[in-house]
Amino acid sequence: MKIYSPTIPDKGRIPLQYVMPGAGGKNISPPLKWEGVPEGTKSLVLVCVDIHPIARNWIHWIVINIPQEVKEFKEGASLKEIKDPAKELENTYGFKGWGGPQPPPGTGDHPYVFKLFALKVPEIKLSQRPTYEEILKAVKPHLIAEAEFTGYFGR
Q1: Contact 20/155 with Cβ under 8 angstroms?
Q2: Domain residue ranges of the chain, discontinuous segments joined by +
Q3: Chain centroid, CA 149 distance in Å
């Protein structure tokens, strides 16, 4: 299984339009595509997490219960094109949907890891604003496969 963005190269820089206004951007959710979803997958979970030590696993986007036939989210899909049964939960900022990078100035480039989990169940239950640890705990018993890529942003 593979996840990627046509506009964010793996290990490359996240373009400005995807970051928060406070960091000079427009907070538009990036386009994401995935392929090679394994046989038996009933749903997918997408998470974008900043794993920088200062960010402490800050959740920028969490989408659960994505139907296995969905193969992409177009640019700007957050809160517009993501439909039931898929569900966007609250990010660490405290609002639903995509919350782009806004790392503290002077802390260097932060790694934003986009992870996709293929699950053998059609849905998982999570709190409205889950931590990264809660997400991993919820997906682990149902995991078939996972894929990831990382984009960087700093200021």
Answers
A1: no
A2: 2-153
A3: 10
Which tokens in the block code for residue 102? 């806004």
Tell me which fold the domain 2-153 belongs to. Answer: Phosphatidylethanolamine-binding Protein (3.90.280)
Q: How are beta strands 110-119 and 43-50 bridged, if at all? A: antiparallel
Say which DSSP state 48 is in: E
CA-nearest of 17, 14, 4, 11 to 71 is: 4
**Whole-prediction pTM value?**
0.98
Whole-angstrom Cα distance, residue 77 to residue 63? 11
Q: Please state whether 11 falls in left (phi above 0), alpha (psi between -120 and 50) or beta.
A: left
Per-residue pLDDT tens digits for 58-94: 999 999 999 999 999 999 999 999 999 999 999 999 9
